[in-house]
Amino acid sequence: MKILIPVDGSEGANRAVDYVINSLSWLKDAPQVFLLNVQWKLATGNVKLFISQDTINDYYREQGMEALTPACQKLDGVGLAYSYHISVGTPAEGIVQYAQEQQVDLIVVGARGHETLSSLLLGTVADKVAKLASVPVVLIK
């Protein structure tokens, strides 16, 4: 089984990792776990006139690894193999695209505990993933 866990460093994402770890006893074989962090694209317009693409890429990598580290530590702690990827774009669309590319069987996504007004009006990333994905999505509160 291939499981994708989108992570952003939040408590919700950590709960999603914990859920997968706690679900290991249910599975016949250890799953193939994919961690994904999607960074919002920052470089638009004239930004590239002042900041090099290498600097922007370093920023994406730094921020992505900061978000991925807690999940990696949890999986390392239980000896569960995983791969990780950092992409740039719109989170929900990036998650669904990566899930399709990796042909995952399940997406386990954490929900945030506090909703903002904009997320109540426009929907959360988790909601959008659930609507766009062609595979089952488990929402962890």
UniProtKB/TrEMBL annotation:
<feature type="domain" description="UspA">
    <location>
        <begin position="2"/>
        <end position="141"/>
    </location>
</feature>
<comment type="similarity">
    <text>Belongs to the universal stress protein A family.</text>
</comment>
<dbReference type="Pfam" id="PF00582">
    <property type="entry name" value="Usp"/>
</dbReference>
<dbReference type="InterPro" id="IPR006015">
    <property type="entry name" value="Universal_stress_UspA"/>
</dbReference>
<dbReference type="InterPro" id="IPR014729">
    <property type="entry name" value="Rossmann-like_a/b/a_fold"/>
</dbReference>
<protein>
    <submittedName>
        <fullName>TRAP-T-associated universal stress protein TeaD</fullName>
    </submittedName>
</protein>
<dbReference type="InterPro" id="IPR006016">
    <property type="entry name" value="UspA"/>
</dbReference>
